[in-house]
From TrEMBL:
Mn(2+) binds at residue 224. It comes from Kaistia nematophila. Its cofactor is Mn(2+). GMP binds at residues 343-346, 367-370. The lineage of its organism: Bacteria, Pseudomonadati, Pseudomonadota, Alphaproteobacteria, Hyphomicrobiales. GO terms for biological process: DNA repair; RNA processing; RNA repair. Pfam families: RtcB (PF01139). It comes from the Bacteria. This is 3'-phosphate/5'-hydroxy nucleic acid ligase.
């Protein structure tokens, strides 16, 4: 009679019971049916046994390179919070190193990568590039044109706010990019969004900035936005896949820091999806620039771009996650130039920098000026300063703040209402940011786009339909 191995036999052999027992028993009993020994059968079963769960690393096992200094009480509190969240994050088993940029600020519960954070890891962590995948900067010059004309042109063709363009006003990404979407398991169902959201800029801190190059006086257009709906969809799917791996590989790891092993089928598909999202976002930037040029019946001059919410793979095999951090190492992408862009605030220049591949920055530089407090905390502080009541800032308050902070600039809000959480006072001191970039050797400032004006989404929720309905019911 042919011997049969049972689940109890595997337990008696020292194996921990789990869902893997079924395929393990099938393999083991197949060996016995073929005349193999019990030892061979148990060896076949053991090949299905999951690896032991990876424990969290110790608090001091992973280096954290801090490139940030506090000059005020607000900044000290911010640095302490950023440091605490990084100390929790680097306990993730596959993380190798981390860095904090001068513009760093918290962006979630303790353990969440901060804005202005860089993490080197053996795995790909969707939570470490955030939902705004490939948030990025692009610049085009417009030789011989004045800034006002360029600002008017981009205002006429861009799209800010929630959702995408109307069906009659849409533009298509390239056939190659759409093919990359259709061929990827993470992206193929999002083709409609890839078209609807193309050449749109969303809301929040995204902008179209027009100014003149300090070096030449040439007019330049700088845009800032990410991958919109397609990127958010990929992020959601990536987080779910990563957490399925986390439950098996490291249940103690925080869900936001779950990773997809790069050498798996899921990891390879996710990496390919990231590259497709990157192509889509670059095309989205340049489509807006080209539309503005067409409006002006001209051609753009020089142009380049860079992302600052993305994952990069270096020659050491590690994956470098920059959340609000600009790549500053050689060859960070096939289309990389020697230059990248670092905005500060709407009243300050956009810095054109050359990366220095600083070891203490893990090869990254800042992506902007960052915040010391949240948007809501900043608005509360402004309301207190202006003696506003519990209903918040009045239109007169907002007009006074806007006039004070944007004097001499052509600042426009696409949706009609100013967003005071995006005015210069909401951000860290620009001079301090420049000084810390130099002090820590993170990049070399080689040129500047001096501000003329900009367009942002504005306060898109202030007169939103759901607010009007709520007010009508209350009245």
């Amino acid at each position: 009679m042919i011997e049969v191995i049972s689940g109890q036999d595997l337990i008696d052999a020292g194996m921990a019971q789990g869902k893997w027992f079924r395929p393990a028993l099938d393999a083991a009993n197949a060996i016995l049916r073929q005349g193999g020994s019990m030892a061979d059968a148990l060896a076949a079963a053991r090949r299905f046994e999951p690896a032991p769960a990876l424990p969290l690393k110790g608090e001091n096992d992973v280096p954290i390179y801090a490139n940030i200094a506090a000059e005020t009480a607000y900044e000290l509190g911010n640095v302490e919070k950023v440091s605490a969240t990084m100390r929790a994050l680097v306990r993730t088993p596959v993380v190798r190193a981390a860095a904090i940029m001068p513009d760093a600020c918290p962006s979630g519960p303790v353990g969440t990568i901060p804005v202005g954070g860089v993490v080197a890891s053996d795995g790909i962590h969707p939570g470490m590039h955030s939902a705004d995948i490939c948030c990025s900067m692009a610049i085009s010059t417009f030789p011989g044109l004045d800034p006002e004309s360029v600002l008017d042109a981009i205002h006429a063709v861009t799209h800010f706010g929630a959702g995408g363009r109307s069906p009659m006003g849409r533009f298509r990404p390239s056939d190659a990019t759409l093919a990359a979407f259709s061929e990827n398991r993470y992206l193929y169902s999002g083709l409609e969004g890839a078209i609807a959201h193309f050449a749109t800029q969303g809301d929040g801190n995204h902008f179209a900035f027009v100014g003149t190059l300090k070096s030449s006086g040439e007019t330049a257009l700088v845009t800032h936005h990410g991958s919109r709906g397609p990127g958010a969809r990929l992020y959601d799917r990536g987080i779910k896949v990563a957490n399925r791996f986390r439950e098996r590989l490291s249940p103690e790891t925080a869900p936001i820091n779950a990773w997809i092993p790069a050498d798996t089928e899921e990891g390879e598909a996710y990496w390919s999806a990231l590259q497709a999202i990157r192509l889509w976002t670059r095309e989205s930037h340049y489509a807006l620039h080209d539309m503005a040029a067409e409006k002006l019946d001209t051609r753009v001059g020089d142009r380049f771009w860079n992302e600052h919410n993305f994952v990069f793979r270096k020659s050491d095999g590690l994956f470098y996650h920059g959340k609000g951090a600009t790549p500053a190492f050689d060859g960070w992408a096939d289309d990389a130039t020697a230059l990248t862009l670092v905005p500060l605030n709407m009243a300050e220049p956009v810095l054109v920098v050359r990366g220095s591949n600083a070891a203490r920055g893990l090869g990254f530089s800042p992506h902007g000026a960052g915040r010391n407090v949240s948007r809501s905390a900043h608005i509360r502080a402004l309301a207190e300063e202006h003696g506003a009541d519990s209903r918040g800032l009045s239109p007169n308050n907002i007009a006074a703040i806007l006039a004070r902070e944007t004097a001499g600039l052509d600042v426009r809000f696409f949706c009609g209402n100013a967003d005071v959480s995006e005015l210069p006072s909401a951000y860290k001191n620009a001079a301090a940011m420049r000084a810390q970039i130099e002090h820590y050797g993170l990049a070399e400032i080689v040129d500047e786009v001096l501000p003329y004006g900009c367009i942002m989404a504005g306060d898109i929720g202030r007169d939103a339909p759901w607010r009007r309905r709520k007010a009508q019911k209350a009245g």
